[in-house]
Amino acid sequence: MELENNIAHIENTTTLDKSGHVKIGPCTKTPEGERDLIINELTRPIFEQAIEEQIPNELNLLFCKPDGTPYTDSALNSSLKRICKKAGITSRVHNHKLRNNFNTRGVEAGVDYNVLKENAGHSDIHQTIDTYNDPQIEFKTTELGKYVDYIKSLLGNLVLNI
Protein backbone atom coordinates (compact mmCIF):
# COMPACT_ATOMS: atom_id res chain seq x y z
CA MET A 1 0.00 0.00 0.00
CA GLU A 2 1.24 3.47 -0.85
CA LEU A 3 -0.84 5.66 1.41
CA GLU A 4 1.29 8.69 0.54
CA ASN A 5 0.42 8.15 -3.16
CA ASN A 6 -3.20 7.18 -2.43
CA ILE A 7 -2.82 3.70 -3.91
CA ALA A 8 -3.72 0.28 -2.54
CA HIS A 9 -2.12 -2.59 -4.45
CA ILE A 10 -4.21 -5.73 -4.92
CA GLU A 11 -1.77 -8.57 -5.46
CA ASN A 12 -3.52 -11.64 -4.00
CA THR A 13 -6.98 -12.74 -3.06
CA THR A 14 -8.38 -15.15 -0.53
CA THR A 15 -9.14 -18.69 -1.54
CA LEU A 16 -10.04 -21.90 0.24
CA ASP A 17 -7.63 -24.78 0.73
CA LYS A 18 -8.70 -28.43 0.34
CA SER A 19 -9.96 -28.45 3.93
CA GLY A 20 -12.14 -25.38 3.33
CA HIS A 21 -9.92 -23.04 5.35
CA VAL A 22 -9.30 -19.51 4.11
CA LYS A 23 -5.83 -18.80 2.85
CA ILE A 24 -4.19 -16.05 0.85
CA GLY A 25 -3.52 -17.19 -2.69
CA PRO A 26 -0.11 -16.59 -4.27
CA CYS A 27 -1.73 -14.22 -6.75
CA THR A 28 -5.13 -12.92 -7.77
CA LYS A 29 -7.66 -15.31 -9.30
CA THR A 30 -7.24 -13.68 -12.74
CA PRO A 31 -4.48 -11.48 -14.18
CA GLU A 32 -6.91 -8.54 -14.24
CA GLY A 33 -7.49 -8.99 -10.52
CA GLU A 34 -4.00 -7.65 -9.85
CA ARG A 35 -4.58 -3.91 -9.82
CA ASP A 36 -4.10 -0.62 -8.04
CA LEU A 37 -7.07 0.92 -6.28
CA ILE A 38 -7.22 4.64 -5.69
CA ILE A 39 -7.59 5.68 -2.06
CA ASN A 40 -9.91 8.68 -2.10
CA GLU A 41 -11.05 11.15 0.55
CA LEU A 42 -13.88 8.80 1.55
CA THR A 43 -11.69 5.73 2.01
CA ARG A 44 -8.47 7.34 3.26
CA PRO A 45 -9.67 7.72 6.90
CA ILE A 46 -10.62 4.03 6.94
CA PHE A 47 -7.17 3.00 5.72
CA GLU A 48 -5.45 5.37 8.14
CA GLN A 49 -7.38 3.92 11.09
CA ALA A 50 -6.75 0.35 9.89
CA ILE A 51 -3.01 1.02 9.62
CA GLU A 52 -2.98 2.57 13.09
CA GLU A 53 -4.80 -0.45 14.56
CA GLN A 54 -3.15 -3.10 12.39
CA ILE A 55 -2.45 -6.36 14.18
CA PRO A 56 1.08 -7.55 13.38
CA ASN A 57 0.78 -10.76 11.37
CA GLU A 58 2.86 -13.07 9.18
CA LEU A 59 0.97 -12.21 6.01
CA ASN A 60 1.10 -8.44 6.58
CA LEU A 61 -2.69 -8.28 6.26
CA LEU A 62 -4.27 -4.93 6.97
CA PHE A 63 -7.57 -6.50 8.04
CA CYS A 64 -7.34 -9.79 9.90
CA LYS A 65 -8.60 -11.69 12.91
CA PRO A 66 -6.86 -11.15 16.27
CA ASP A 67 -4.73 -14.25 15.62
CA GLY A 68 -3.44 -12.72 12.34
CA THR A 69 -5.36 -15.03 10.02
CA PRO A 70 -7.70 -13.89 7.24
CA TYR A 71 -11.42 -13.50 7.84
CA THR A 72 -13.76 -15.92 6.10
CA ASP A 73 -16.38 -14.57 3.70
CA SER A 74 -18.97 -15.93 6.08
CA ALA A 75 -17.57 -13.92 9.02
CA LEU A 76 -17.42 -10.76 6.90
CA ASN A 77 -20.99 -11.27 5.72
CA SER A 78 -22.16 -11.79 9.30
CA SER A 79 -20.48 -8.55 10.39
CA LEU A 80 -22.00 -6.68 7.46
CA LYS A 81 -25.46 -7.99 8.34
CA ARG A 82 -25.06 -6.82 11.95
CA ILE A 83 -23.92 -3.36 10.79
CA CYS A 84 -26.84 -3.07 8.36
CA LYS A 85 -29.35 -4.23 10.96
CA LYS A 86 -28.05 -1.62 13.40
CA ALA A 87 -28.36 1.03 10.65
CA GLY A 88 -31.95 -0.03 9.88
CA ILE A 89 -31.11 -1.63 6.52
CA THR A 90 -33.41 -4.60 6.19
CA SER A 91 -32.70 -5.82 2.65
CA ARG A 92 -30.70 -9.00 2.15
CA VAL A 93 -27.04 -8.02 2.30
CA HIS A 94 -23.73 -9.66 1.55
CA ASN A 95 -20.25 -8.44 0.69
CA HIS A 96 -20.73 -8.69 -3.05
CA LYS A 97 -23.62 -6.21 -2.81
CA LEU A 98 -21.10 -3.60 -1.65
CA ARG A 99 -19.15 -4.17 -4.87
CA ASN A 100 -22.36 -4.04 -6.89
CA ASN A 101 -23.49 -0.84 -5.18
CA PHE A 102 -20.12 0.85 -5.66
CA ASN A 103 -20.04 0.11 -9.37
CA THR A 104 -23.71 0.91 -9.98
CA ARG A 105 -23.38 4.26 -8.19
CA GLY A 106 -20.22 4.82 -10.25
CA VAL A 107 -22.22 4.34 -13.45
CA GLU A 108 -24.86 6.77 -12.15
CA ALA A 109 -22.15 9.30 -11.26
CA GLY A 110 -20.79 9.11 -14.80
CA VAL A 111 -17.51 7.37 -13.95
CA ASP A 112 -15.89 6.09 -17.14
CA TYR A 113 -16.69 2.39 -17.69
CA ASN A 114 -13.02 1.57 -18.25
CA VAL A 115 -12.13 2.97 -14.82
CA LEU A 116 -14.88 0.87 -13.23
CA LYS A 117 -13.75 -2.19 -15.22
CA GLU A 118 -10.16 -1.87 -14.03
CA ASN A 119 -11.23 -1.09 -10.47
CA ALA A 120 -13.40 -4.23 -10.42
CA GLY A 121 -10.58 -6.33 -11.89
CA HIS A 122 -12.56 -7.36 -14.97
CA SER A 123 -10.96 -8.28 -18.28
CA ASP A 124 -14.01 -7.34 -20.33
CA ILE A 125 -15.93 -4.05 -20.16
CA HIS A 126 -19.15 -5.93 -20.94
CA GLN A 127 -18.79 -7.94 -17.74
CA THR A 128 -18.70 -4.69 -15.77
CA ILE A 129 -21.61 -3.09 -17.64
CA ASP A 130 -23.79 -6.21 -17.60
CA THR A 131 -23.07 -7.06 -13.96
CA TYR A 132 -23.09 -3.65 -12.34
CA ASN A 133 -25.49 -1.50 -14.30
CA ASP A 134 -28.61 -1.66 -12.14
CA PRO A 135 -29.44 2.03 -11.73
CA GLN A 136 -32.11 3.40 -9.43
CA ILE A 137 -35.40 4.62 -10.92
CA GLU A 138 -34.51 8.29 -10.32
CA PHE A 139 -31.34 7.90 -12.37
CA LYS A 140 -33.19 6.07 -15.15
CA THR A 141 -35.83 8.80 -15.27
CA THR A 142 -33.19 11.54 -15.51
CA GLU A 143 -31.20 9.69 -18.16
CA LEU A 144 -34.28 8.89 -20.27
CA GLY A 145 -35.30 12.53 -19.88
CA LYS A 146 -32.26 13.32 -22.05
CA TYR A 147 -33.89 11.37 -24.87
CA VAL A 148 -37.19 13.22 -24.44
CA ASP A 149 -35.40 16.58 -24.47
CA TYR A 150 -33.46 15.59 -27.57
CA ILE A 151 -36.59 14.50 -29.46
CA LYS A 152 -38.34 17.74 -28.45
CA SER A 153 -35.38 19.72 -29.78
CA LEU A 154 -35.60 17.88 -33.10
CA LEU A 155 -39.36 17.96 -33.54
CA GLY A 156 -40.28 21.05 -31.56
CA ASN A 157 -44.03 21.67 -31.44
CA LEU A 158 -44.73 18.57 -33.54
CA VAL A 159 -44.17 16.46 -30.41
CA LEU A 160 -46.90 18.30 -28.54
CA ASN A 161 -49.39 17.83 -31.41
CA ILE A 162 -49.12 14.04 -31.61
Q: Could you give the topology of this structure?
A:
Blueprint: E1 7-10, E2 14-16, E3 22-24, E4 35-38, H1 44-52, H2 73-86, H3 95-109, H4 113-120, H5 125-132, H6 137-155, H7 157-160
Antiparallel strand pairs: 1-4, 2-3
Helix pairs in contact: 4-5
How does this structure look, described?
By secondary structure, this protein is mainly α. Helices cover 48% and strands 9% of the residues. The strands form 2 sheets. It has a two-stranded antiparallel ribbon. A two-stranded antiparallel sheet has the order 2-3.
Q: Tally of extended strands?
A: 4
Structural class: mainly alpha
Largest sheet: 2 strands, antiparallel
Choose one word for the global shape. Answer: elongated
- What is the spatial order of strands in the main beta sheet? 1-4
Low-confidence stretches: none
What is the strand content? 5-15%
List keywords for this structure.
162 residues; mainly alpha; two-stranded antiparallel ribbon; 7 helices
Q: What is this entry, summarized?
A:
Helix content is 48%, strand content 9%. The protein contains 7 helices and 4 strands.
